[in-house]
């Protein structure tokens, strides 16, 4: 790839489109970049999630993060993580918007406060707050 990739985009098929939009756009505050509709009930919305990274984890690390954040293996193969300014407040807002808490905000060995949620669209998400201000 000449010049490398310019964007990471994760495409998720969601059964309840309106609930997913309300959660990710309205509750998590991801700005709408574009939205399109087509024949019948065809709809798609692209949300800006800020800086994107691709985290590749082997099975041992995947199990370790589940253990740290939740205390047991729970995550499917894919999980989304969003850095937020206040993990506790963002978790409460996410729950109000329809997410279910899998594990409350928990301090990790790498100095972040991480909450695990089941979000609309059957997605496991982590909301994390960097505690030392370093960011990732």
Automatic annotation (TrEMBL):
Name the source's superkingdom.
Bacteria
Q: Where is the VOC domain?
A: 6-130
Instruction: Point out the coiled-coil segments of this chain.
Output: none
Tell me where the signal peptide lies.
Answer: none
Originating organism: Paractinoplanes pyxinae
Record-given protein name: VOC family protein
């Amino acid at each position: 790839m000449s010049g490398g990739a310019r964007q990471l985009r994760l495409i998720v098929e969601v059964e309840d489109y309106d609930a997913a939009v309300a959660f990710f756009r309205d509750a998590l505050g991801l700005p709408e970049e574009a939205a399109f509709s087509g024949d019948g009930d065809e709809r798609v919305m692209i949300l800006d999630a800020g800086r994107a990274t691709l985290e590749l984890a082997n099975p041992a690390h995947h199990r370790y993060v589940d253990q740290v954040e939740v205390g047991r293996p729970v995550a499917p193969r894919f999980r989304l993580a969003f850095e937020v300014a206040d993990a506790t407040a963002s978790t409460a807002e996410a729950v109000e918007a329809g997410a279910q808490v899998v594990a409350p905000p928990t301090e990790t060995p790498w100095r972040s406060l991480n909450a695990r949620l089941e979000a609309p669209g059957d997605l496991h998400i982590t909301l994390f707050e960097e505690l030392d201000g370093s960011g990732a």
